[in-house]
Write a structure and sequence with these properties.
Structural class: alpha/beta
Strand order of the largest sheet: 1-10-9-6-2-3-5
Distance between the termini: 22 Å
Order of helices and strands: EHEHEEHEHEEHEHEHE
Largest sheet: 7 strands, parallel
Strand content: 15-25%
Number of helices: 7
Radius of gyration: 16 Å
Number of strands: 10
Helix content: 25-40%
Bound molecules: fructose -6-phosphate
Length: 236
């Protein structure tokens, strides 16, 4: 594992964008695993800037997002599909048809999970997966206590996740209670992982995840076993 301490959030974002852009330069038809949340916003902004300068070409890239709320349509401003379109996809030359986010309103959510796993296989697996980390150690929506081996599945969100995500909704009651998420197994199968964590409030959980015991009660702790993990932190 490589752990890189960034000077500040702008530095973290630039460093993460550098890793992603190196992946795309080295393999123009790369499959990028992407995340939502506040941490990657600066990374996406940086990628957009370099794209606009002509430094990166996303035309052959495919992307697979980690997760989506159950019950939200892609045009709902709180959906992760909407987030990705607004914060990255519509500003770069990626083919929207090659951007995948779980369908939160699939008629049969279980079938949607199977379809998503098949899709990951079909595109040849994920070359580089970007990850954030929740205060409870979740990655994607893999909440503490779930089995490590899971592929894409439906989760009931934990109380701390509902509260953390309430900031994006009008009221806490509007936060969906379920999500579809890539599982720990799907994440661990990515060829490279890039975990980004920003802010003093993430320090304790990142240290637990990277240096503590590997346990389902800290889902991100499994990342210690990944052969190609890069972590970029800024705890200022
Ligand atoms: C989002 C996701 C979540 C977030 C995590 C951290 O797709 O999978 O695991 O990465 O909740 O969120 P932020 O970056 O908002 O602190």
């Amino acid at each position: 594992m490589r752990v890189i301490e960034a000077k500040d959030y702008a530095d973290l974002s630039r460093k993460a964008a550098n890793v992603i852009s190196a992946q795309v330069i080295l393999k123009p038809h790369a499959v990028l695993g992407l995340a939502t949340g506040s941490t990657p916003i600066g990374t996406y902004k940086q990628l957009i800037e370099w794209y606009k300068k002509g430094d990166i070409d996303f035309s052959a890239v495919k992307s697979i997002n980690l997760d989506e709320y159950v019950g939200l349509m892609g045009d709902n401003e709180q959906s992760y599909r909407y987030f990705m379109n607004e914060n990255l996809f519509r500003h770069i030359n990626i083919n929207l048809e090659h951007t995948y986010v779980p369908n939160g309103v699939a008629a049969d959510p279980e079938e949607e999970c199977r379809r998503y796993d098949a899709l990951i296989e079909e595109v040849g697996g994920i070359d580089l997966q970007l990850l954030g980390i929740g205060h409870n150690g979740h990655i994607g929506f893999n909440e503490p206590g779930q089995a490590f081996e899971k592929t894409t599945h439906i989760v009931k969100l934990g109380e701390s996740t509902i509260q953390a995500n309430a900031r994006f909704f009008e009221s806490i009651d509007d936060v969906p209670r379920q999500a579809i998420t890539m599982g720990i197994k799907s994440i661990m199968q990515a060829k490279k992982l890039l975990l980004i964590a920003n802010g003093p409030d993430k320090k304790e959980i990142v240290e637990k995840a990277l240096y503590g015991p590997v346990t389902p009660s800290v889902p991100a702790s499994i990342l210690q076993f990944h052969p190609n993990l890069t972590v970029i932190t800024c705890f200022e």
